[in-house]
Every structure is written in C-alpha cells, then in structure tokens.
Amino acid sequence: MDTSILSASKSVVTEIFINFRAFLANISGVERSAYIFFILGPFFMLVERSPADAWLSMCALFFLFRCAWLKDWKWLQYFWVRSVFVFWMIALMSASLSFVPLYSLGEALVWIRFPLFTMAVVFFFCKDIRVFYALLAMSFLGMLSMSVILLSEIIIVGPSYGGRLTWPYGDLMPGSYLAKACLPVFVGSLMFCISRSGPIRTYGLLLLALPFLMLFLTGERMNFLSFSFGVIVALLISPSGIKKGVVFLCILGAIIGVSAFFGPYFDRFVVDFFHAIPLFSDSPYLKAWNGAIAAFLSQPIFGIGPDAYRLLCPDLAVNFENISCHTQPHNYYIQIAGETGMLGLISAVVMFGAIVKKAFSARQTIAPNCFALSAFISPVVLFFPLQTTGDFFGQFTNVFVWSAVGIALAASKLSANAKSS
Fold first, then answer.
1. More confident: 399 or 236
2. Which 3 state secondary structure label does DSSP give 160?
3. Nearest-CA neighbor of 297 among 350, 355, 352, 341?
4. Is the dihedral of CA 290, 291, 294, 296 positive or negative?
5. Is residue 170 part of a domain?
6. Number of structural domains, the chain?
7. Would residue 10 count as lying in a domain?
8. Is 305 strand, coil or helix?
9. How far, in Å, CA of 230 to CA of 251, rounded?
10. Is residue 220 a contact partner of residue 171, using CB atoms and an 8 Å limit?
11. Does residue 9 form part of some domain?
12. Band of the pLDDT at 63, cuts 50, 70, 90?
C-alpha cells in the first residue's frame, strides 16, 4: 500500500481526535466524562447485550437529567420528536388494556430509552461537529474490528449453525451490528471514497469491501440484502456518478456470487431464502406473521399490548390456522399492528415518516457532505416495511437501530445548522 495513503489516513484520524480533545478541554469534568463514555459506544456494542444497553440507557438518562437541570426542552418542538412521544403514549395505553398489563406496561415504559438516546445524540452529544466526527471515527473502527473478529472466526473455527458466524456474541447477531449500527458510517464512507480519485479511492474501496464481504459470510440474509439496498441507493445518489460505484458492486458481486455456490451459502441465500418468502403457506415467516395478524383481528384498535405476542400467541393459535409462535413476528409493522392496534400502527408510520423526512432534509442544505447526503438512507433501510426484522420492543437490535438513526439525524442537524449560520 502507498505509504502516503497510510500517512494521510493517520493524519486525518489524529486531527479528528485532536479536535475532540480540544472540545473536551472547554467543558466541565462531568460532561467531559459523559462525552468520552458516549463515543466509546461502538465498542460497548461489540461486547454483548447488557453492556450495550447500559451504555445507551445511561447516555439517554444523562441527557434527560441535564435537560431537567437546565430546563432545556427546546428539542421538544421538533415534529419527529413529538411523533415518537405520541406513539409511546398509544403504546402505554395499549399496554394498560392488555391481558398481561404489568408485563406489557413494563416493556412499553422502558422502550422510550431507544428513541430518547437518538434525541440525546442529535440535541446534545453531537451538537458540535468535532464530537460527531469522533463518533464516526469510532464507528468506523468498530466496523473494522467486527470484520477482523469475523475473519478470525472463519480462519480459526469456521462457520457454524449451517453457515452462520457468531463471534463475538456467541449467537447469531454479528451481522446486525454491521448492517444496522455501521450502516451510516459505511454508506457515508463509500460516497466519500467514490468521490475521490487515485489511490485514496482504490484503497478506501478495498477497505470497505472487508465488512461488506464479512456481512455476507455471516449468513444473515435479510441483513445482507437490506445493507446491499442501502449501498445501491448511496451509489445512485452519489454526486460523483454511478460508474465508479457500479464497478465496485460488480467486483463484490462476483466474489459473493462465486462464494454462494460453495458450502452452505448456496442453501441459505438461494434455496432457504426462496422457501422462506412469505407467499407460501409453509413459509416460517408467514406463520409468524399470522400470529400478529390474529392478534390484530382480536384487538384491532389498541392491540394485545407491546411485546405481549410472545406470551399470548399460543392462545391465539388455538382459534387460527397456520400460526407458528416465536418471541416476535419478525416484521415491525405487523408486530406494531398486532400489539398496539390500528392507532399504534398509524402513529408508528407517522413517526417513521417524520424521521426519514428529517434525515432527508440534509440534502436541501447549502453545506452538504457525504454523511449528510446519505443520512436518509439509514432510516429508510432500517424502517423499510418489506423485510424481516427483530423485536421492535426488544433490546439488542434496537440498540443497533436507534444508534444508527442517531448518527443519521445528527448529520442532518449539523448540515441544517451550517445552512442557518
């Protein structure tokens, strides 16, 4: 590799953290500790569920206590913020009417920590561009660290569970980290690389090829497909043109295409994927969706209560056919409809739409950059309705999702601030 590229990269990273250190020098000790703790988040997410959730929750609570102490509630004026709280109120009402009210109410109450963390990122932690770039740098390092961990797993023990990778969590979640938590930094970095020329573009794209390939090798179909969709959109909207991106995709596609015809990957990405499409009566996803649909039909206005599907599905399956009960129905919109009813579904659609619209507004400013231009991609991909998803009221996946949304909205907010100034 050209030593000048290594030197330039090292210089950029060094400048980012020098600027972050200069920012820390001008704030109080308590806030300084909070900011340092905040930018370590990508590495907390590499550890496990509880540390990641604790990091997110503590950042959200610090933001909330700070707002109460300073009586700073101006951030409540934004429509996307209000739409979140409207959905939360409906979820709490649904929980109070559930057949398992105590359990459902507990799940609904603590769910707010996820979007509250996003608000903390946008309106406090990343108000300064120096903190934002420090977070991006840490996210990029976290993405590369996960890629190296997965590569080590392949070399040392090989794929398990029918072609799946499990390090560092010990379960089938590493692809979610790459596809969700790392999506904003990946698409922004991709747009940056293809907008450059010479060795910077070449080596940058080679570096980004590693997490893309590792995501495929995790065997997580939907994470890979949704991530690929985000990459394609980023290439289409790139101001530097599509041709460079098409070459990048063709090279990766050829590598993945060859890999797909060896070992378990052909079965997972072709055979199993075809049989899992929820158009066939024996599709496992259709059977899971049917449980939430049955829940919606039984309580169409307020639903059966947030996260109550896992407890009440066996009772619903008695009166409906072709239902397979799981911990959740594997689709945000179907789950929200079943667990919070029509009112919850409508408010959730408004909430998702408001977040996407706010992220998209960065493209209208006079100070665009690669991360602002691609900000809307992450919420579009993460909240796209035609995909299988994790538990909307659950833990680990929500940490990944709402941290990514926070980065996207922070990029949009910073871009808007640049326009106003």
1. 399
2. strand
3. 341
4. negative
5. yes
6. 1
7. no
8. coil
9. 17
10. no
11. no
12. very high
